[in-house]
Design goal:
Layout (H helix, E strand, L loop, with lengths): L4 H20 L7 H6 L6 H11 L3 H14 L5 H16 L3 H7 L4 H9 L1 H19 L2 H13 L6 H50 L1 H17 L21 H16 L1 H9 L3 H11 L2 H22 L12 H9 L4 H33 L9 H22 L9 H25 L5 H22 L10 H21 L13
Length: 503
């Protein structure tokens, strides 16, 4: 392994501090609202740190670095699009304003008043299905980073990630959103330091001019077929629309849906003290998402240039784990400890936030509406905690054997689309179109899920030449969802009971 004593000290100190802070929050949890949305008392600074920390996981570092390795600087355009979408929503309050004013704990809960209980239940089911499948590859990708960066034996991966997930489950089950917010704040500091230090060392080692010229040379070699195995670039390193506008256009629509519909982000909106705080959190966090894609993408691009200019990819190295392999060779003792502490912080913050989010949706939108008699506060809290644990156990098994079809980012975007397209359609129509009704909502939910589910099933069973392009699956889900909402609402009687979107 590449770790020195100093690296181990840094990692152990971080883990002990994070666990202690997370577990200490259990004393403040009195009910499901404290557990799920922190009593709606999240302030601005804590909201910024928590949102940024949760949305920069180790899986994020892996897939953004893979985009940098295969697409160079052009891979970071997704971060620019996401930052613009988040800032625009933070300025206008589009969707998130009415959501926070509604006082709900989850997005599907909003649909009951507008479209009825069956729509809420089906929307909740799709949110959970898309969210849990999306999270399914987090452990595998996080483990591959740690194996490649530290040089640990590959067969340790399952045991290391099981132990890490166990620690996350412990403080998340005990403290819920309160533990998530506090640990996110600590993890935000550790991750920020690790990312900045690593980026400086990467640029210093490879040289900015050499990086730019190396990417150009690698692209030229790709076009002529003169690159080594695994070093072919998927697209032009400086032009994100070199091959097609379709992928970028899909990402624009997709990112608008993400910042208004992705439940892990919306949970911060719903936890904020008020609507104004939620909007300010979005505006202040927006630019962070440029760095979220850009800096790990820089590491991936540097890894491509390094291996292109030297001996080629080591045996067993792919576009997915090339970046951590490169960093394991580059960083000296002490610095690799900082990187790994940041990596563990990234994994833990994302896992805790996502586990809590999907468990809350299952309880709030799938179980609670079916319960005949109101449950006691302790019973509701016990069920929600049990759901966090159950999801963690499922992900432990699913996440360590599922094989990703293609780029990790494409898998994440398409699985997210299982519910993003349809629920985004329901939100926009339900809040801003009085003619929308339950029939249109059902049509949007079903049709919006067809494209992503078809992508997952077909691409898992056919060769690469016949696989469905991610932009086709993603764009079709939005088109079908909007078509279903419009046609279903216009071809059936208007709703008899409507809710003003300002309430």
């Amino acid at each position: 392994m590449h770790l020195a004593v100093l690296d181990w000290v840094i990692i152990v100190v971080y883990l002990i501090g994070c666990m202690a802070a997370g577990i200490a929050m259990r004393r403040y949890v009195r009910g499901v609202e404290d557990f799920a949305v922190a009593g709606r008392e999240m302030d601005l600074n804590l909201g910024i740190a928590s949102l940024a920390a949760t949305e920069l996981g180790l899986v994020t570092v892996m897939y953004t670095a893979q985009l940098g390795f295969t697409k160079g600087f052009a891979g970071a355009v997704i971060g620019v699009i996401m930052a613009a979408a988040m800032y625009g929503v933070g300025c206008t309050g589009f969707v998130i304003g009415p959501l926070r004013r509604a006082g709900v704990m989850t997005i599907p809960e909003l649909f009951q008043n507008r479209f009825g209980l069956p729509v809420r239940w089906l929307a909740g089911l799709l949110v959970v299905l898309g969210g849990v499948l999306n999270m399914g590859i987090f452990l595998r990708l996080g483990g591959e980073f740690l194996v490649a960066a530290t040089g640990m034996p590959a067969h340790w991966l399952e045991w290391v990630m099981t132990a890490l997930l166990g620690m996350v489950l412990l403080y998340t089950v005990l403290g819920g959103m309160l533990s998530v917010l506090v640990t996110d704040y600590l993890q935000f500091i550790v991750k920020g330091m690790g990312i900045v230090v690593t980026s400086v060392l990467v640029i210093k080692a490879i040289g900015w001019s050499n990086l730019v010229h190396g990417l150009s040379a690698a692209w030229a070699a790709t076009e002529t077929g003169n690159t080594g195995a695994g070093l072919q670039m998927a697209d032009h390193p400086f032009n994100p629309v070199h091959s097609t506008w379709g992928y970028v256009l899909w990402q624009i629509i997709f990112q608008i849906a993400v910042v208004t519909t992705w439940q892990t982000q919306i949970s911060r909106v719903l936890s904020a003290r008020d609507e104004a705080t939620a909007k300010r959190v979005y505006r202040r966090t927006a630019f962070y998402f440029v760095g979220r894609f850009g800096l790990p993408g820089l590491w991936g691009a540097a890894a491509l240039v390094y291996f292109y200019q030297h001996c080629g990819l080591p045996v067993g190295t792919t576009s997915l784990n090339a970046m951590p392999t490169y960093l394991g060779m580059l960083l000296p003792a002490g610095f690799i400890g900082i990187l790994l502490a940041a990596a563990l912080a990234a994994e833990m913050s994302t896992d805790s936030g996502y586990l809590l989010t999907w468990a809350t949706v299952i309880y709030n939108d799938l179980i609670s509406p079916l319960v005949k008699r109101p449950l006691s506060a302790s019973a509701r809290l016990f069920i929600t905690r049990s759901l966090v644990l159950a999801i963690g156990i499922f992900l432990l098994f699913y996440g360590l054997w599922y094989e990703i079809p293609g780029n990790a980012w494409d898998y994440l975007a398409v699985t997210g689309n299982i519910y993003l397209a349809s629920v985004f359609t329901l939100l926009v129509a339900g809040l801003y179109w009085p003619r929308a009704n339950a029939t249109g909502a059902f049509c949007a939910l079903v049709l919006g899920a067809i494209g992503p589910l078809t992508f997952l099933v077909v691409n898992a069973h056919v060769d690469k030449a016949h696989q469905i392009a991610p932009e086709v699956a993603g764009a079709s889900s939005f088109a079908l969802a909007f078509a279903g909402m419009i046609a279903g609402s216009l071809l059936t009687p208007p709703p008899t009971r409507q809710t003003n979107h300002q309430n």
